[in-house]
Each structure stands twice: as C-alpha cells, then as structure tokens.
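Dear Dr. V.,

Thank you for agreeing to look over these. As mentioned in my earlier message, I'm a first-year student in the group and I'm still getting used to reading structure tokens, so any feedback on how I've presented them would be very welcome. I ran two proteins. I've put each sequence directly above its structure. The first is here:
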Amino acid sequence: MPQLVDNLADLTALRDRNALDVALVSAINDLLQPKSTAICRVVGDAGNERWRICAQWDAGQPTPTSDSAWSRLDSLPPLSGHPLRQQALATRQLSQTSDCPSITVFPLASNAATVGVLEISTDEPLSEDAQRLVSGVLRLYLNFQSLLDYGERDALTDLLNRKTFDGAFLKATIEQEMAVENIEGDRRDAAGAGSYWLAMIDIDHFKRVNDNYGHLIGDEVLLLLARLMRAHFRFHDQLYRFGGEEFVVLMRCNGEAEAAGVLERLRATTERHLFPQVGTITISVGFTEIKTGDTPSGAFERADKAVYHAKAHGRNQVCSHAALIASGELLDAAANMGEVELF
C-alpha cells in the first residue's frame, strides 16, 4: 500500500503530459512487475489510423522508450495490425489473451482527441484483483489528464493555449539540436531529418466580422477556422490559439518549400470555405524556421514581421521571413546589430 500511495503521489505531481505517461507505465511496472507496459495512442486521419507508442517500459530496461512525436505517419504500425487493441477501443472494455505470456489491454479515452490503450504483457493473465488495481490507477490518470486538458487548451477552440507554448518550443529546439548532431555524424540522415517551423496565422479584417455580425458569430468563425486547421495539419503538428484572431502552428517540415506549401494549402482552403452568415474570410500567414539556440520571442518577432508584411501588401497571402530578407523587402535585424550602441 505505501508503494501504491507513493506512485499515485508521483503521478499527480506532474504537469507535463509526456512525463505523466512515463509515470503511469512506471507505476504499473512497480505494482505488477510485468514483462512490459506501454501506452499506445491512435493517430492519423480516418482510414489511415496508426499506433504511436507514447511510453513503453520493458522488463530490464533502464528507461522507457517512445516513438518520436514527429514520426512519419507511414512509419507507424496500422490500426488493424493490433486487433486486441482495436477490440478494447471498440468495446471500451478490457481485452485479454489467455496465452502465456498474456496481453491485457485497457482502453484510454479522456476526450475525442485522445484515444488509446494501456497494454500490459505478463507471464500469466492478470487476476481480477490486479485488473481492478490497474483500472483504479487508470481512473486517476484519466481524471488528471482531463485537468491538464482543461488548463492547456483554449476554451473556445480546444486548441492548445499560449501558456503551453514555451515548453513545446524548448522541446523542439532541443530535438532540433539533436537532429543536427545526428546529421553531422551520419550524412545519410540529412534528407529525412527535417526542421522546425513557426507559423503565425491572422484572420484578415476580423474586427469587421465582430462589428458587423456580433461577437457570437465572430466566435463561430474562430471555432470553424480551428476545425479547418485540425483537418489540414498532421497529427504531430501543434496548433495554438494565442488570443483574439491570432493562431500559431509549430510544425516540422523538410525545408522552406514544404512549409510554405502546407501553409498555402491552408490559406486556399480557408478562402474557399463558406462561413455561415459571414460568407468568406481570408488569412494572412507569416512563418520562420526555428534556429539552433532560438528563443520564443526571437522566433515570434520574425514570424510577426512576415505577417505584418503580408497584411501591409494586400493580405490573404503566406510570407516567409527568410524569403523577405533574401529579397531585400525586410532588413535583417542581426545584420544591423553593429549599428546599435550597447551599454
């Protein structure tokens, strides 16, 4: 019992979702001593769903492992490849094999955007007492995850909110630095490594929508744009609402051309979409690559300058900060640093 209390205390002391997953598999390992424990979530669009391992801890392994949050979708196993997991999701009930070793799968579903399973491998099928113990720990885990969702997500659009961004940005810069080191050590990885990009999305003339149609219709426009963004971007792209009509995307792409293409498709999709009562709206987008050693304020400043340029030159367009610097349409602040008197 003291060990269980300690595990639950550790679980509820966390505020990071990845750390929470690791704490759950760690708690199950301590309580049951299984062969392995894994949290697997469903990612991808309907018809192309895949399994992503968020945390897995095998017996004898010093630390847990996981699939990268930026994994390519086609590199992950398809949903149909694990029928026991599918069964647990479909029935929302525990599924178990009678083999030795045995696999026991518990469904996880905290909200519509988070669907997955807890999979435990043991030498023999879990007893009813062990099943009840795991179910109790899972209820606490899911309740706490719901609290995290409440604190991390925008109430209107259900996108991530601004206060969660700095942590995600830090993780992206660390992973970017690690990717650069890997590329330098093995040039064969260069083509598929990708890099991180920050995009700012601003609705054109949004004040007119509120003034002409009222704030309820304005909120509906924000909600519908958020839905378009969720349908448009990939499962590992992180979508934020920063307040008002301003949205932010943190994504990984193989170069500026790919990033520009993704954002241009969103711009075109938004322009074609018919919003109830309002009709059509457009968006202006500015984006920049996240650099090694970057800060959120530095990346935001570059993306914001690109957005400002888009709005000052006709709106309804996607602008790359680097491309604007290269063309001379924007001045590079770093190039002018020598002219600034520092004291």
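The second protein is here, in the same arrangement:
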Amino acid sequence: MNAEINISNVILETDRLILRTWELKDLDDFFEYASVEGVGEKAGWEHHKSKDKSLEILKMFIEEKKVFAIVLKENQKVIGSIGIEELSEELDKDLDNLLGRELGYVLNKDYWNKGIMKEAVSKVVDYCFNTLKLNFLMASYFNYNIASKRVLENLNFKFYKDIIIETRYNNIKEKSTLMLLKND
C-alpha cells in the first residue's frame, strides 16, 4: 500500500550531501545532467533535449513533493535526484496491508562510481523507515545497470522478482529486477 509522501519541509544531510526539495533556481544544474545521453535512459526516461523539457519536469518535482534534489555540499550544485515514488508493481499478499513506496534515482554522470548514490539512498531509506515509519521499500533496475544493482545490494535490498519495465520513451520493454528492503 502506498504511503502518503510530502517532503516540502524536509532537509536531509550526509557527510557530502544535502537532500532537499527542488527549486526553480536548480534548472541549469538539472538540465546539465538530464540532457546527457545515457543518464536518463538508465533510469527509464529519455535524456532532455531542451531546457523547456527540464523546466516542465522540475515544476512537476516541486508540485508532487516526493523527489529530493541531491546537492553536493562543497559547491551547492544539484547533481541528481531521488524520488519516493508510488509502487508500480503488484505485490505479494504478505505486503498488502503494509505501508511502502518505491525509490527511483539518477545521478550526474560526472559523479558516478564515487559512492554518492549509495550515500544518498541510504539517507532516504533511513528517513523512510525511521521518520515516515514505512514497512518496506522497493527499487528496480534494468538488468544491464550493474551500478544501480550494486547500490541496492550494498544497502541490503533483496531480490523480489523479475519484471519487464516499459520505458517512457520509444515504448521499449526492458528486463529488470525489483528489489525489496523490509523495515524489520
């Protein structure tokens, strides 16, 4: 069951990062990474071909109040996002009456393989379990996206089931894996 989410007044911090709501002033940083071919595609969306497209999505992030901007403390640059999304898959009966959400994330290509996403997702997991009191979290990755798989495995997400995800561009269907983390 989807839990209600509103991160309007939430700011989370790690050693290197600030996780906060998106602001219109973040448009240039957002477009910088969202326009790079291969970044969005690893998360299931086509890279942005115009700043207008980025602005449209940015306004949606602000309105929906469920997507954190990942800000690098050292320079205040937005380098990615983590959304606490509605569950997209049918769940087994054992999860029916429990509160949960699905995480989705993306990171500026310049910051890949530096442990940043693990740090950010770990902080959001802690927030979801200890503040929001969710019972479980899901996350999925395209099977070719080994880096995303490693992030989830390092945070103790466990295999839940194989799925097919239809991407938001070109209606391409990708073999994917859905992972589960329970709040025990």
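From my reading of the second output: The first strand starts at residue 12 and ends at 13. Residues 12-136 form a domain with the Aminopeptidase fold (CATH 3.40.630.30). Does that match how you would interpret it?

Kind regards,
E.
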